[in-house]
Amino acid sequence: MWKVRFITSGTANSNSNDIDGYTTILHDHFDDGNWGDKWNILFDDGNDSTVEESGTILHINVPIPSSGESDGTEGDSLQLQSNQTFSGENIVLEVKLKHNGYGKGGILLYKDNDNSVTFQLDTNDTPYVQFFSKENGSTTKQQIESSTSYRGDYHIFKIMKEGNQYSAYLDETKKGTTFTNDGLGDSGLSVVLINATYPWKSGAADNYFDYINVLSSYNGSDCNVDITGYSVAGTLQPNEEITFHVDAENDCSSTLYYRFTYHPDYGTDEYDGYGWTSMTSSEWVTDNEITHSFSETGKYIVVVWVVTNASNVDAGVPIVGFSVNIRDNGSTVGEEEPYFPF
Fold this sequence. Notes:
seven-stranded antiparallel sheet; 342 residues; 0% helix; mainly beta; elongated; 51% strand; eight-stranded antiparallel sheet
């Protein structure tokens, strides 16, 4: 027997980098040894470029190409794009970066090939802090100041989007002037990590990314996760598969993370509320449906958490609970009156 019921609901503003009215929708400290879980190669024309995630650092190296044209068309680059797209009227994009080489390194807020905002260092022969806006295929550039003093140490690069206004900050100091860009819009955006060099440079693009954060807000109110539906299907007997499904939505992120857990002895004196067991191979998954078998009879509660950022979760996130009673002669879900021990 079974029943589904909401346990609690709240706001998933849970990262330590959150600011009032914003939700952290992407956070990567590059600490799981697998850069491909959050990033894909958007562009790579360097035959010997390398990407390595180790410790808490993402290291990207693009060797200097052997030949090229002076107009910059024959450089080599490797650009990593976030798998996740996101939305928001107001967005903060922040990265901690050490630009250790002689090419380019920085961040790009990206809509498509015709619409983006770039904040980067270009060292060596053109040693500038650069802020670019590309709107409907037309690019406006700001060469702000010499980048020489920023090479070789970690610095915080930040792009702030407020509606159609875009500003750049380096170590919390505003650089250049604010761009107006109507081409990016408020949805379908992603992050691109910039790495490039050219034959006339003195060496490789050698960049170390320590972390990246993306925070988003629709006037500070619409980034919450909403659980919109849920279902259970299967036979409530030992070793029989039961499918748990949760529908959820969020205006600011294309990716939601789900944590499926269960606790035995629900509604009995043995239930203590502490002995939770994960129902998936990793604690958080992006699939909103799982299949699970209980090996023993008894009353179980299954609780599912749903968040936009699995890196740092508070107690106020939306969750939904399912009560299941596993018996030797248990029925198929829906065939008997539900049992929910409250």
